[in-house]
Amino acid sequence: MSDTTLAAALTAELASDLTATSGTTATVIAPFTGQPLHEVPVSTAADVHDAYASARIAQVAWLASGPDHRRRVLLKAHDLLLERREELLDILQTESGKTRGQAFEEIFQGASVTRYYAVSAKSVLKTRRRRAGIPIVVSTRVSYKPKGAIGVITPWNYPIALSLMDVIPALAAGNAVVQKADNQGALSILASRRAFIEAGVPAALWAVVVGPGDEVGNAIVDGGDYVCFTGSTPTGTKVGERAAKALHGASLELGGKNPMIVLDDVNPATAAADALFSVISSMGQLCVSIERIYVQRSVSIAFTDALAERFGSITQGGALDYSTDVGSLTSQAQLERVQAQVDDAVAKGATVLAGGKPRPDLGPYFFEPTLMTGVTADMECFAHETFGPLVAVHVVDTEDEAIDLANASEFGLNASVFTGSVARGRRVADRISAGSVNINEGYRASFSSVDAPMGGMKRSGLGRRNGPEGILRFVESRTVANATGLLTLPRTGAELQQLTGVMLMMLKALKALRRR
Ligand code: NAD
After folding, report:
1. What is the pTM of this model?
2. Which alpha helices (H) appear in 281-316, and where do they start and end?
3. Which residue, by CA, sits nearest to atom 30 of ligand 1?
4. How many angstroms does the Cα of residue 333 sit away from the middle of ligand 1?
5. 251-276 burial, b for 16+ CB within 10 Å, e for fewer?
6. Are strands 351-354 and 370-373 parallel, antiparallel or unpaired?
7. So which residues are the catalytic ones?
8. Is the separation of the CB atoms in 459 and 253 below 8 Å?
9. What are 247-302's pLDDT values in tens digits?
10. Atom 11 of ligand 1 has which residue's CA nearest to it?
11. Which pairing describes strands 36-41 and 25-29: parallel, antiparallel, or unpaired?
12. Are 129 and 141 in contact (CB under 8 A)?
């Protein structure tokens, strides 16, 4: 489909699916061509307010429909996502500039997370007995109540995967969602949302708005009962502060400066092949992509040479098929950001082993994936997130030095260890301060494991998505304990005095039995 046909088809979708009444629009640029793709209608704070009001009404019936109904609807949506994958891939590529293969990763992830929560929500959220504080006298249960309306704020880089990783567990737990999409990701989100609406998710239950981050974003935080934010650390900090003032919970999925450690027992050529993909996927515009490599000296030359050769053999372009390895940066701002970091590093003495230049012959925002050595602490790309396809290789003498340098960052999102021994990799992983560590992989091993939590330590965020942790964000736990009536709790001073001896004996017995 050409950009123009796609834009015409999707602008019609937007008009009916977005909650946006300002009457103004914003121009979205197609990254492959630099030409306008479509005009996105802009929402206001009042739109967000209305969306929450309708969503809260829809949530009552959605909750009452029960977990089995929700499972059926979500599994049907899963099938529709797969059936429509080619159309979704066209939209995703056209809107983001990524390759078809990397766009497919988003569909795969979105479908996986939909299936996972469809199938697991009921058992994770089942009411369960807990140990009573006073055996025999008391019986205790914990049940879960959905929070109500969840605000979701998403960035432009992985519009489908990142949306579904938050929206689906929220819906599966019986909540409504009001989502603020980035202008650049809105088409992909609306197109994938269609699958859910057709499968039976009420349209008002999952509203989508777009618009200025401060106005519309603030309204999202204020109007919901919980907020999921994915984006940069500075914006996430503002969102966290605002949510805290309202006493709303928040999960914050933020930036990273993700390290890879290459140990001295690797096959350097294999490690280089995998390292390449961890740097270039979605042109490095991926929160978990690798931007720093620490390689042990004995394998450093073989590894770096193999990596430089891999960088040199990449096929780059804007084809809507699987013929390219890497696509375009998504915007002019991204091009300027990556170019500025490369220029700064080169001016201060870094060596470019591969890439380093824009490719205007391919399209306005294309930039060669870039491999550097000699990157030092005075350079912008040393410690700050590039969010682009730029990686620096540093040589280290020992495993300990590699770990210390990997941890010497304000971020702690993702990390990777390449080694000939998984046991050694696990030992190293245990010493790394990051929410995920991949062994002999860059990010896909943990990212695709939707039963396991994903999130950041330090300034990479708060809270976790995926796994049971990812759905427990969206519920309030409620403890219901009853007096069994088999024995009566003491009420008066005299009764308490009489029973203190028995109660002390009980405490000692429970400890002796190692009972929780
Ligand atoms: P961003 O923080 O600029 O924007 C993210 C979203 O927040 C957008 O929808 C934006 O409109 C909105 N926003 C802007 N100001 C706001 C405000 N005051 N209140 C509420 N919302 C506001 O980030 P970006 O440039 O779109 O995304 C890139 C960043 O996101 C990178 O730092 C990347 O590492 C991070 N990211 C993290 C993850 C993760 O899972 N940890 C995933 C993807 C991206």
Report:
1. 0.96
2. 297-312
3. 231
4. 14
5. bbbbbbbbbbbbbbebebeebbebbb
6. antiparallel
7. 253, 287
8. no
9. 999 999 999 999 999 999 999 999 999 999 999 999 999 999 999 999 999 999 99
10. 213
11. antiparallel
12. yes
